[in-house]
Amino acid sequence: MNRQEVATLILKQLDRKRLDLKKQYSLSKSTIGYFYIDNILPKELVDAANVVFPNKSELVLKKSLKQCKYVSAQMDAHDSLLEEILYAFQDERIVGAISEICDFEIVIEPDKELYAGGVSLMNKDCFLNPHIDNSHDHQRDRWRILNLLYYVTPNWEKLNGGNLELWPNGIHDKAIEIESVQNRLVVMATHNTSLHSVNKVLVDGSRKCISNYYFSKEALSGHKEFHVTSFVGRPNQKLRNFILNIDSKVRMGVRKFFKKGIRKNPHIYKK
């Protein structure tokens, strides 16, 4: 099945649930706008994606105080089905439908280079600390607007951990936890206050995800200044929070002199 055919299946489900999705996003957009939809693709297709998903030996480990996860943007190194599903979410019909659901006045566009997108795997003890995403693409030409997360692992339960957390009222308030349920698509706005995280995986299993970002030449309202990806500690991680705050400040200082950073981010699709 090619990406156009996959996109047609996705569009059918988005259209079927459009009013509900618009309501989800509208009710949340004053803080962190988001919506999610289940059963976005036929089960046999997502089961096939799960089977061919790369294992950790085929991915790059990112491990620090900020995060622990395995990632790849080099989609031609993996089974072609994964690339077709990923790029189906970049089909202009899907981009247009999601823009309409979010009631955007700005023009949004997908990222063919997969800057910070691609596939990711999180196994036992992997995590992603609370953070806001980098405000721009790797050229600093476009604003990062939406994060699309599509989950692949079957029979994933809330108690497994590895679930998305949104912090609309900051780190000291309760997070909204969105489970990494198989065949669920989560769409989340990214801006200077869209604090989010992934809680620690607690089981011997692999939380598998296909991710995309959408960008725009215009910023979302209230989102007007460049910022690097900035991590913080959880409420019980005071020392880690101190270290991560210093890290963010140093990297922001570097960007004042080197607009695109000292080194080119390697996490892009090099075709």
Question: Helix/strand-derived class?
Answer: alpha+beta
Oligomer: single chain
Mean pLDDT metric = 95
CATH homologous superfamily title: q2cbj1_9rhob like domain
Q: If helices are DSSP runs of H or I spanning 4 or more residues, what is the number of helices?
A: 6
**Poorly predicted regions:** none
Radius of gyration: 18 Å
Query: What is the CATH first-level class name?
Result: Mainly Beta
Can you give a write-up of this model?
- By secondary structure, the chain is α+β, with helices and mostly antiparallel strands.
- The chain has a single domain (3-257), classed as Jelly Rolls (Sandwich), CATH 2.60.120.620.
- Helices cover 27% and strands 24% of the residues.
- The longest helix has 20 residues, at 238-257.
- The model has no long low-confidence stretch (mean pLDDT 95).
Q: What labels would you give this structure?
A:
alpha+beta; globular; 271 residues; 13 strands; 24% strand; Jelly Rolls
Layout of secondary structure:
Blueprint: H1 3-16, H2 18-28, E1 34-38, H3 43-52, E2 60-63, E3 67-72, H4 80-88, H5 92-101, E4 109-110, E5 118-122, E6 127-132, E7 143-151, E8 164-166, E9 176-178, E10 184-189, E11 196-198, E12 207-216, E13 230-231, H6 238-257
Antiparallel strand pairs: 1-10, 2-3, 3-5, 3-6, 4-12, 5-12, 6-11, 6-13, 7-10, 7-12, 8-9, 8-11
Helix pairs in contact: 1-4, 1-5
